[in-house]
Amino acid sequence: MDIFIEKLVKKKRDTLDNVIIIGTIILAIALITLLILFLGPYATSMFLCIGIGYVAYVVIVSRRIEFEYALTNGQLEIDKIVNQKKRKNLIDANCRDFEIMAKVASDKFDESVKGISEKIIAVSSLDSQDIYFFITNKKEDEDEKAKRVLVLFEPNDKMLKSIKAMIPRKFFD
Predict the structure, then answer these.
(1) pTM for this one?
(2) First to last CA, the chain
């Protein structure tokens, strides 16, 4: 029987997102004002102002981030979706290759994450109560050695039951 479970998680805006958005708006207004003051209200400055406005718009909408989790027959794929347009694969891992999987709030988290430099955080908010983690090996290229990577994500109950059935000895509640 084939297993296919999908979940979409929308990232909530945090302080960094708000700082980037407000900073972009202030910078765009300042640059547009300086352009008009120094170059005058001519066609060249207007085209530059439109360009600055467009760049500001792109930066602001790039803060709309979603994460998609897809579990297909033991293969977990996590993608980052920016502004519902650009998709980037963050990790594609087989559940049987997980070293451990548990809730972030458990005592297993602190003892397991020591020495792991690469982290993938694919959650709506770090304050969420339903965050799980797993540790696996990730290869960037065929020539490169696999690195241990820590992944934080928010699976639904159906996904958790399927993963637990595949790796009962490595799964901790």
Answers:
(1) 0.84
(2) 26
Return all residues near 28 (Cβ < 8 A) that are at least 6 apart. 52, 53, 55, 56
What Rg, from alpha-carbon coordinates, does the chain have?
Answer: 21
Residue 139's nearest CA partner among 87, 97, 96 is: 97
User: How far apart are alpha carbons 159 and 74 in whole angstroms?
Assistant: 10
pLDDT of residue 3: 81
Q: Do 84 and 17 meet the contact criterion of CB atoms below 8 Å apart?
A: no
35-77 confidence digits (pLDDT tens)? 999 888 888 889 999 999 999 999 999 999 999 999 998 899 9
Distance CA 130, CA 25 (A): 34
